[in-house]
Amino acid sequence: MAHRIRNFVLSLRSSVKDLLPVILVVAFFQLAVIRQPLPDHLDLEDLLTGLVFVIAGLTLFIKGLEMGLFPMGEGLAKAFVSRGSAPLLLTFGFCLGVGSTFAEPALLAVSGKAANAVAEAGLIATESIDIKRFQLSLRLVVAVAVGIAVVVGILRIIKGWPLHLLVIGLYSIALLLLVIAPPEIVGIAFDSGGVTTSTITVPLLTAVGVGLASTIQGRSPLLDGFGLIAFSSVMPIVFVLLFGIASFGYG
Amino acid sequence: MDKQTSILAHFGGTALDILPIALIVFGFQFLALRKRLSRAPQILTGFVFVWVGLSLFLVGLDRALFPLGTLMAEQLITEDFLPELAGSDTRGWSDYYWIYLFAFSIGAATTIAEPALIAVSIKAHEVSAGRIDPFRLRMAVAFGMALGITLGTFRIITGLPLSGFILGAYAIVIVQALTTPRYIVPLAFDTGGVTTSTITVPIIAALGIGLATAIPGRDPLLDGFGMIALACLFPLITVMGYAQLGQWFGKRLEHAESDPENRG
Question: Which residue of chain B is at minimal alpha-carbon distance from A94?
Answer without folding.
Answer: B24
